[in-house]
Amino acid sequence: MYELGANRYGKSRIRLVTVTREAERHVLRDLTVDVALEGDFTAAHVDGDNTNLVATDTMKNTVYAFARDRLTGAPEAFGLELARHFAAGPQVGRASITLREHGWDRVALAGGPAPDAFARRGDLTRVAVVAATKSGATVEAGIEDLTVMKTTKSAFSGFERDRYTTLAETDDRLMATKVTALWGYGETAAEPGFDFDAAWETARSTLLAVFGEHFSPSVQTSIWIMATAMLDASPAIDWVRMVLPNLHHWTVNLEPFGLDNPGKVFVSTTEPHGLIDATVRRTG
Amino acid sequence: MYELGANRYGKSRIRLVTVTREAERHVLRDLTVDVALEGDFTAAHVDGDNTNLVATDTMKNTVYAFARDRLTGAPEAFGLELARHFAAGPQVGRASITLREHGWDRVALAGGPAPDAFARRGDLTRVAVVAATKSGATVEAGIEDLTVMKTTKSAFSGFERDRYTTLAETDDRLMATKVTALWGYGETAAEPGFDFDAAWETARSTLLAVFGEHFSPSVQTSIWIMATAMLDASPAIDWVRMVLPNLHHWTVNLEPFGLDNPGKVFVSTTEPHGLIDATVRRTG
Amino acid sequence: MYELGANRYGKSRIRLVTVTREAERHVLRDLTVDVALEGDFTAAHVDGDNTNLVATDTMKNTVYAFARDRLTGAPEAFGLELARHFAAGPQVGRASITLREHGWDRVALAGGPAPDAFARRGDLTRVAVVAATKSGATVEAGIEDLTVMKTTKSAFSGFERDRYTTLAETDDRLMATKVTALWGYGETAAEPGFDFDAAWETARSTLLAVFGEHFSPSVQTSIWIMATAMLDASPAIDWVRMVLPNLHHWTVNLEPFGLDNPGKVFVSTTEPHGLIDATVRRTG
Amino acid sequence: MYELGANRYGKSRIRLVTVTREAERHVLRDLTVDVALEGDFTAAHVDGDNTNLVATDTMKNTVYAFARDRLTGAPEAFGLELARHFAAGPQVGRASITLREHGWDRVALAGGPAPDAFARRGDLTRVAVVAATKSGATVEAGIEDLTVMKTTKSAFSGFERDRYTTLAETDDRLMATKVTALWGYGETAAEPGFDFDAAWETARSTLLAVFGEHFSPSVQTSIWIMATAMLDASPAIDWVRMVLPNLHHWTVNLEPFGLDNPGKVFVSTTEPHGLIDATVRRTG
After folding, report:
1. Given A108, A135, A162, which residue is the final one in a domain?
2. pLDDT 10s digits, C126-167
């Protein structure tokens, strides 16, 4: 009469910090890791039979144990090791690892960057989403928590007007957003030797540079322009998805105070916000 | 060379409060509304042509204007009016309205409940997700932000053990979670006359009662048991999805202080947490 | 050349859950506890000498150990035990314990309230702030996270107008706030036998009833009216402090859509907000 | 029978963005401003008489109007203008302005830093707290939201041990904190010509460099060492207050997995946390 539909389970928000104590300096890594498994877990749901259920506590332990020696490169590479480990479980169809890496800068000392003291950057979060099955793996990478603003070269006009439309057309507005971007690498990325750090850095710097350079007739077009530039810059990327809130900045009416406001003073808002979500991919 | 993939856009976090000033008392409604449209918006993305783009500001205006006279019943009914309005747009394939209703209680006065003063409940958020196309509509309802705990009748044992497993088996633990539940109504729900409030209340009270009554061998089984009970209770519901974090409560080791701890003192944690996500549906 | 000024240290956000397993039913308590010590800690700051420093980890342990048998009544009473324990330390001048208690309701079953299943209320947080020195103790109690709204009987007019004033006077507006209230009990409250639960409940219900009943010419006056009513109702209370944000609700202009808006549709906002902070005390 | 005690009111979270459109590039400022007034507001509280009450909406308008031409330098200078304006009000005894400035970097383009595109830094928030009375002004500055970590040169040993102490002594631990620092300038800072930006930058860089360089026997001593270095570096600073959570990082026990853990793998936690609050000032 009833059946189990889509299901997944795992451990979320595993907070992992590692310190590699090199001779000259320490290397600090700071990640939040989520593990999720899909597979044939009908018995656990329907029969209360936990036989083939990996405890989420075990997932957490595995992440910390693997971090001892295998978190030596990109978060994507660490995610691949974890995903393949979990995907080998008898009941597991697909293991997904989401890794968010939080950046830290070395503190500036008189003699140069500190070897063992760090300040958290806070400018963005690097994301990796790795999934493995028994026969293969996929790797996605991305950016979260990157807040950007253009103070010109952004317009919004020519849109549909109906009886509920009051928004004025504008050829010059502030455009601000908090970028969530995710992109998918082709199959070769899951093979040894792919340089995830370089690929991520190219994607990040391209996204930012194009954000700064382009003229934006709408957030939708901005996604297209930034995403196609990222695809141009990185043949390894198959698709780019962006989810961009439009964080409206309203020009303050200063006329009651005898002042004009030529694009000078704005109210920054977060609620409500536009929300534009689009994927751009290679054709065919 | 590139093409537009999945895309949607809209306005999020439209904060709407309405007061209906009846003779004897005021009725207060408090909702957060998100509007999202899907359709053929290729020109807006690829060509910077906004001709058929409904401004998200217009969406916000529409929600407030519709609230003037049409927010008289369930949030699902209000969502259907909005969804059908937006779905009629030339470029729109599908309009989705997500409504979160925040509950308020009347303040207790000496003479009974206040006619015009309210306190926000905070025990849960009622959710409705309504989508309309040019040919039909679907209605989903749900619950968010409902934190519940069982202080017994929860076990976890018999799970897989590998070299990374340290968790002890237990036949009696605290089980705490913050419920996110969503369920889908069949087609008849989108027709006039369906009582969304009664259906939601049945689902809510069934979920809670079964949460309290059942013996839980795992969070997975709890979802199955609660969801099948909700399907039993409401023929109008086709499927139930639950996303349940396992908010671990660890028994404190009081032995160093010469005390035992027979299930008395716990550390409440939120990070890391298990996360169990499953859908249960009618067969066939 | 330099000296240590005001200082305090302690452990914050100790998350404590206790379950008392009575024959017929379980009793659930859920608190967040902060411990802070003041005293002569100059050596620890200036000389790096930790000799008389109680580790904050020890504070945490003490809270959990004390909770084993002594969290049997009001949070204020538990706080007094903790405060007096820490105040006895050789270096300690004053120990302050802040306790926030989170309410849970029993889940409704067919046969009545569940004996062992609970749902978190979320309507407010009960606060107690207890401080002990070697010679005495003070007890304060309060409320946080209580969001309330009046849909009429709130005005704001006759205020000062200068060249930067644009706000219209109004004799009927929504008034919404998230109450933070703290009140101080007289010395007798620290003696055995004082009924903290009854005193807190009287204060809470008085605050809410008066909030609902009174006419508010300003948030400032509302504080005065509510606070004096609380002082009237409880001779044990010496003073009441309230910190009330004015969570503005703006009437939506529906005229562009051919609709009037007679106090019906509002935008709920949180930013910016007024913030009114005042203490009312017994004279002399 | 009752009287009004301490009171203040104002507008909080005024979100202000300004763009100065210079010939070659735009300059972006992003602040959150709080205004608070103290004075003789008894009539407003006790009598419901708003005659001398400045509406908080007027405060907001004033901030935006002043930002049109007067936000040309340090936040402290802007705060002084606002504070003196409000302090001139007939009923006002003291006007306090708290300004939090959010940093933005120019986006990197191929040809150099973008003239009109920015990314929010997120590494810290610059704070200024300015207060004016009818006869003078005080200026405080500070830092919030700065998360830092030392991966060595931090110990904690020799502390008091009682029956509730289980913490092991350590001569090498991670020390992580989220800095809240505030410091007070002497009277000359409120006079024209004081370079607030340079003073803040000296304080920030000194705090960070000393954080990285010093050996920490406790968070308390770290505050003393950092604060005295800041006082050494800036004669204009009279006192420094720091509020530092101790964000514990626990060494993971990897022995069950056959691995040692020589200071390599840690669990990052935020709850519970130590909280150390101390002020260091010039003697006399």
Report:
1. A135
2. 999 999 999 999 999 999 999 999 999 999 999 999 999 999
Q: What is the pLDDT of residue B236?
A: 97
- DSSP characters for D21-62? E-SS-EEEEEEEEEEEEEE--HIIIII---TTPBPHHHHHHH
| Cα of D123 to nearest chain A Cα, Å | 5
Q: Which of B58, B83, B57 is nearest to B70 (CA)?
A: B83
Are residues A162 and A78 part of one domain? no
Listed residue (B99, B131, B106) closest to B120, CA to CA: B106
Residues A170 and A105 in one domain: no
Instruction: Say whether B11 is catalytic.
Output: yes
Question: Is D142 within 8 Å of chain C by CB?
Answer: no
CA distance D111 to chain C (A): 38
Same domain flag for B155 and B131: no
Question: How far does CA C105 lie from the centroid of its chain?
Answer: 20
Domain CATH code at residue B173: 3.10.270.10
Q: What is the pLDDT of residue C174?
A: 98
Does B31 map to a domain? yes
Is B66 in CB contact (< 8 Å) with chain C? Answer: no
Q: What is the pLDDT of residues B45-65, one digit of tens each?
A: 999 999 999 999 999 999 999
How many CB atoms are closer than 10 A to CB D74?
A: 22
Q: What is residue D284's predicted lDDT score, i.e. its pLDDT? A: 79
Question: Is residue A231 situated within a structural domain?
Answer: yes
Residue of chain D nearest C157, judged by CA positions? D50
Q: Which of B204, B181, B182, B194 is nearest to B76 (CA)?
A: B194
d(CA A58, CA A89): 12
The confidence score (pLDDT) of residue C105 equals 98
On the question of a cis peptide bond just before residue C262, with omega within 30 degrees of 0, the verdict is no
pLDDT the model gives residue B3:
98
Please, what sign has the CA dihedral across residues C146, C147, C152, C155? positive
Judged against a pLDDT cut of 90, whether residue B284 lies above it is answered with no
Quick one: A194 and A224 in the same domain? yes
Answer yes or no: is B233 within a domain: yes
Q: Round the average pLDDT of chain A to a whole number and report it.
A: 97
Domain boundary among A135, A160, A193: A135
Look at the alpha carbons of A206, A207, A208, A209 in this order and tell me if their dihedral is positive or negative: positive
Do residues D277 and D151 both lie within one domain? yes
pLDDT at D264: 98
Cα atoms in the Cβ-side hemisphere of radius 13 Å centred on C142: 22
Task: Find out whether C164 and A257 touch, Cβ atoms under 8 Å.
Answer: yes
Q: How far apart are CA A32 and CA A17, in angstroms?
A: 9
Residue at B4 is within a domain: no
C198, C102, C132, C80: CA torsion to nearest 10 = 60
How far is the C-alpha of B109 from the C-alpha of B117, rounded, in Å?
Answer: 9
Q: C72: domain range? A: 9-135
pTM: 0.98
Q: Are residues D155 and D91 in the same domain?
A: no
Q: Which helix (H) or strand (E) holds A176?
A: strand A175-185
CA distance A257 to chain C (A): 6
**How does residue B168 score in pLDDT terms, banded at 50, 70 and 90?**
very high
> D117 and D152: one domain?
no
Put simply, the chain B residues between 237 and 266 with a CB less than 8 A from any chain D CB are 256-258
Q: For B209-267, what is each residue's pLDDT tens digit?
A: 999 999 999 999 999 999 999 999 999 999 999 999 999 999 999 999 999 999 999 99
Burial B85-98 (b: 16+ CB within 10 A, else e): bbbebebbebbbbb
Q: How confident is the model at residue B83 (pLDDT cuts 50, 70, 90)?
A: very high
Residue type present at position D140: E
State the complex-level ipTM: 0.97
Paired strand residues for D144: D125
- Are both B106 and B166 inside the same structural domain? no
Domains identified in chain B, total number: 2
